[in-house]
## 1
Amino acid sequence: MRKQNTAMPVLHISKRTSLPLYKAWAIRAVAILLALVVCAVVTTALTGLNPLGVFKAMFDGAFGTQRKIWILGQNVAILLCVSLAVTPAFKMRFWNIGGEGQILVGGLATAACMILLGDKVPNWLLIVMMILSSCLAGAIWGGIPAICKAKWNTNETLFTLMMNYVATQLVAFFVIVWEVPKGAGKIGIINQDTHAGWLPQIGSYKYLLNILIVAVLTVIMYFYLTRSKQGYEIAVVGESEKTARYVGIKVEKVIVRTMMISGGICGLAGLLLVGGTDHTITTTISGGRGFTAVMVAWLAKFNPLVMVLTSLLLVFLSRGASEITTIYALNHSFGDILTGIILFFIIGSEFFIGYRLSFLKNEQKEGKGNV
Amino acid sequence: MKKILSLALVLVMVLGLVACGSKTEAPAATEAAAQTPAGTEAAAAPEAAPADVKLGFIFLHDENSTYDLNFMNGAKEACAALGLSEDQYIFRTNIPEGQECYDAACELADAGCNIIFADSFGHEDYMIQAAQEFPDVQFCHATGTKAHTQGLSNYHNAFAAIYEGRYLAGVAAGMKLNEMIEAGEFTAEEAKMGYVGAFTYAEVVSGYTSFYLGAKSVCPSVTMEVTFTGSWYDETAEKEGANKLIANGCKLISQHADSMGAPTACETAGVPNVSYNGSTVAACPNTFIVSSRINWAPYYEYVVNCVLNGEAIAADWTGTIATGSVVLTDVNEQAAAAGTVEKIAEVKASLEAGELHVFDVSTFTVGGEALNSYLADVDTDPAYTPDTEVVENGYFNESAKRSAPYFDLQIDGINLLDTAF
């Protein structure tokens, strides 16, 4: 990697040991400010619109009315749920990018209970069965690559990724089995008249139950990762498998157990989608959340409480982008461009928080750190 | 190092997938959707002042889908004809067929819309859910099947007798085949058409069957192969489907799916194409013959006028040639056979006069036998229970019992290549 010539590189990147909290947040603030400036320039250059109006529209799209706030909360809850699910696996350095498939099989199990048992068992029993089967389906879907990893050291990245496609095709198959009307390729809302298997609604708030469930889950996950023995084992296995073995941790057991938890929570997200909100199953119901969750978890450095903020940020950007499209009659791609710019700067700022850039004047003297 | 490498790999793959995933939602081109209504205001202004109507439109995709573009154009045309100002209608694009549709419908109602339209089949249940919550708002859903059984006074279905348009387009296709046979390009027995369909759904079956019958009415030896993509919008699959049909020896292609996949495949291969949803002549100047499409503007205007005049909106509304809902684009003289325009006009006149019926049971057989009676699944239920007799007076009475098509028979002469997609 080192250059052959004798001249020293002008730029030197080194890892920061630590950075005061206020400095880290100052860097983030500057990044967001810069992102907004670039967005404003791009907006004016491409559309000729007043960028302040566009920013306001984004904000209104996310928080404009009570309903919009609820929808925002619901979307944050589901994304957060998936992010919480993939986090233990990531902390273990097990690259679970199969969240998408685990959500789908969880949703499929839920839908199967609702369709096949909807009028055969009491509603409370049905919902219990839905919860168990969705978590179990997700756990199995996550457990298969984990077992193969533990036993034969297969590549979990490819394995979990491929499991997504298997799950998608499985859902596609059952959609055709259950489609209404014939040939339509859609199941439609399941039990729309009887509401059998629909998760209960708290008062007049459609999405409150989902939000509460995920809020509780967030707290549990925080304590599980930071305070429990299993959470510690996950961290040790993630840092070094050899160390883990040396101190007597059964690495294979931890891998399989953690991935089953990861998949099980993804399955729960499938339950919340199918049983709690959409009441149908489609191949696209997870909406890419299995992948977006990876970004949420990384941005939050695997801290469940920070993930509330990062998932809020991503959902805010997507709802805002959708609102710009509607108000200014722009193509969706334009909203995505703005989202991309903002994310680019935010992810970039994390680099400057973690690393120091030094401009070397000569061999001995080190230039000022630059952000 | 290995960990950093695998981390980098994960990030590349994940970001790649995220990018691929969002692509379907957000196709490339940017185009201003709203256009100022151009001076046609006074023309069709209803009695009551339209100042207090506000329309909300929900679209599955955006203007890059020929299907949604056709709805958008209809909506703009209707708003212009009704003299509505730009702040009297809202377009919501890229709304998936899930809870997002319900959310979007409720948000539109919150924003003061008193009529809300949705354009995709899978939106139906979510529109019904919203309709139950907002009894004072009218919810109108194109292509749905449940309004006549749902019993909601503010939920309505609409479709058009597009099978008549497909039939006329089929006549143009048959004439093109005849011309190619006469030119000695292939024999009459080799006259085979190809059709790229989305799903094995009645709407598609009705469409390709009427297209085939139209072609057969002028080219009796014609046969047809149909392939399905399992998606309403999948450019790659539609293109591959068309290429497969062309490789199978199909001399002319038509399609019922919403991307430019099949038309562009035809243009590349130099195979004539009969399109749907609108003219594709700009992209396919050498192969585009004609396209049938539903003009939604008459329905939109009908609904707005009903609301303004305080009249009830029909649970099922079927547009026809007479209402201006079933239309054909201009025939592309460069690709079409000579005399196509005149022939279409002639057949159209006899369809309108009621002398000719598209699904005349004397013109086709099912399993080698004539069709004298058929119970169709008109009232949608999970068991697909056949419930309504639809063969009347010697023809299959399509779109009369409800607006959405229900012709789902496999007639002889049409060969389905892959029903399990």
## 2
Amino acid sequence: MDYDMLVVGSGIGGMESALKLGDMGYKVLMVEKEPSVGGKMILLSKVFPTLDCASCISTPKMAASIHHPNVTAMVYSEVEQIEKKAEGKFQIKIRKKPTFVNSSTCTGCRQCEMVCNVAVPDQYNSDMVSRRAAYIAFPQAVPKKAVIEKQGSSPCYHTCPAGIKAHGYIALVRAGKYEEAYELVQETTPLVGSLGRACYAPCEGECSRYEIEGSLPIRKLKRFIADKYYAGNAEPKAVVRVEPNGKKVAIAGSGPAGLTAAFHLARQGYGVKIFEAEKQPGGMLRLAIPSFRLPREVVERDIKNVTVLGVEIETGVRVENIGDLQQQGFDAVFLATGTQGTRKMNVDGEDLDGVVSSLEFLRNVNLGKELSLKDKTVIVVGGGNVAIDSARVAVRLGAKKVIVQYRRSREEMPAHHWEIEGAEKEGVEFQYLTAPVKFNGKGGKLAGAVSIRMELGGADAGGRRKPVPVEGSDYVTKADMVIIAVGLAPDTKNFGSTIKLNMNETISVDPETLQTDIPYVFAGGDVVTGSSMIVNAVGQGRRAAFFINRYLTGQDLKGEEYDYRLPAVDKQQVIDRQQQYSVLPPVENKEVWHEKVSDFREIEPPLTEEEARYSAGRCLDCGVCSECSQCISECPANAIDMSMKEEKLEVEVNSVIVSTGFKLFPADAKPQYGYGKHKNVITGMQMDRLLAPTRPYNTVLRPGDGKVPDNIAYILCTGSRDQTVNNQLCSRVCCMYSVKQNQLIMGALPLADVTVYYIDIRAFSKGYDEFYEQARGMGANFVKGRVARVEEVEDGNLALYYEDIDNGGKVTRAEHDLVVLSVGLLPNTEVFDFFAGEQLEADEFQFVREVDEDINPGRTSIEGVFVAGTASGARDIPDSILHAGSAAAQAAAYVERTRMQQ
Amino acid sequence: MSSEKRAVREIVREEMLMRDKILAALGDGPLTVPEIADALGYPAYEVMYWVMGMRKYGYVSEKELTDEGYYKYGAVAREGA
């Protein structure tokens, strides 16, 4: 849709221009980057010199500007480009930011804000108090609709293959909401306890805090919430089962992929049956991971999260024929049989008694088979986590000596460093750059390994340096057992005749939908990806459930976006939000370690509650919104929409009014006044917030300690009329807003003394001088003299050193308990970035240049573009409104003149 | 006298962490901001952010004003809690 006019900004100037033009009958588009119209005026306490309530004056205009039949107010949107076209028209590009709240259903009840778990500084209260990631800008906001601030996906969540909302559960732990944290993880997977112990936590590798002093222990936090929840819920809570939809899904394999798929399908009303080849369910969780890392009871409790939904698990049944399942009445099949086979080394002696695969070894131990390695020497071949697990299990079975032989160096070892270090502590010997080339035997039984030294040569196709045997370096090690842990492979021979396999015998699927070449058969997890992390398999199970549901409900599988996440927020952007960081060291990683390890007790101690909350408290809230989903649960209007996306719009208009306002002088640019350093030095805008009815505190208080101040100083011309900060202009409003605040303070705090340090008082407009005199009459003390510096003294009080001009100009010291810096106005130079082609000109002070200010106020260097209010120079509110009316008249005249010419 | 102030964003972020501690400190009755700061071992200006955030979101409210010019803040039952 096209408009007659574009008004950029909805402060008092923008609103005035839009309303006047709307009243004239023009169609106006008003674009505001904040979630509410109103600009800065709505945040003020009162206006001078009438002391009318700023809200009372602003809100009718705010309401009118969004309800006016000819004005379209587009909030939370930014003009990206303004380009002048032929015939005097303008092409406008606008970015509409996602609010993640459906504005047509949001009632402005603030429930989302009340339950939100992310606190950030409230810019609408000049950072004196917090707001939430989900928020309504201020109580008088128009429209009064919530928005959720998201700067992107937090990297921990974005990188999780399963889509577990790591930032969300961290934020919930930080807030002490452990059960909600558990439930949030369980929304994605039933395997909360298992992942809390055995996940390799790619999230931690992406944690922004890593850049400061170390990642958060995200996995351990998951374990903390699972332990806490399971301690109070030995059995899953009774669930209200979804009405069965009459369709059945068979799942082959009860590992992480199968269990997760079953969980999601059952929750949608499918009849799900899992067929497990082993005697007990759990797949690799139960068979491959030693119980000292993942106790069996945790796996069993996780599985109950699935069976409570009515999922049937039949063990000891290997799926041999997919067609049989269809004949049994299953409408879809999900193959998640994992990697049950092991790779061979293809060296002599591999078939000797005593040479075993790591999986066979671990499976036997995990299924309770009696096995003793007392006084035996064990060689483990391989460098992955399975190799380390095998070595540590061998130690626990009493082996006299356990040697890990790995053909590359420690740096290249795929196992995690903490696993290697744990094994070393338990006495495992590592022989790097070494590999067996032959196993010797006697009577069919293993006697030892012939190994050869390696050196690293050039890089292979994957970029890793290739191990090259060193000729003549072979040596023999006597051994009673060799455990080969050089990789796992899928066992898909049963399926090979019916579905398409890849060269490496994994099942061939559409990577997006996980559908095989048989439409009703899907596959996922290690049997598709090859041996991988548990969390990858969980992600595949979840994905499969999503597309199986689409398949069984007759929906198109292609084109549907699964698990949409915003792009990850840039980590440097996150770090740069703060100028300095306190050092908050991570909780030390520790294992319960005994010199002689002989049992399978869990080695990793849990985080204590104190450690968990401390750790969660280190989170930087990278994406801002944590996606903890509390707002979704709480919103009575069901208005939260996390799938909302940014929109880009293009419109054509006949004329443009820029009303982009001003910026306040950054008070810390005058370091001698101590803003940002001394706790009780604030700005004039902060004092206005303290005096406003919607103030951040219960009354005017010192931010340093909450004391009601009784001796307040004002320093005028902070950042105005000051060559040292490159702003020689008078800001025109500082004297009078300070005088206004003096009067309001003396009304609110009758016992307080107010002293104003000034150069000269500029009370130039109608009623201003009288207003100033009234403040003096009320008791405000005006001291002529520039303040040189402010120092913090005892109890947070402040010593001012100033030139006492009326008393001979000597430098004098005075003590106050609160100092207000009357900061000036600076140009908002962002407006100049909007223009493509013909550039908008700035004046010598970087305000928008009015080319003919005396007789055509509001006209800019671009014909058809006008400026309203403080975008062209410091003005008080009445002058801004007057100027905005002028800009509106100019814009209307331009449009009519253009029309007549055409 | 002036001790290094932490970044506002960092202090504010900790409100969620400190909320339970502050409510526990208020268990025996209302306290001023400096009294809460003493109880928690944190600087008063940081406690000010947390207490005012908690006030804004209905966890505490101001009670009496002391002779020294400090309000006492007490825990309140939140609507819907």
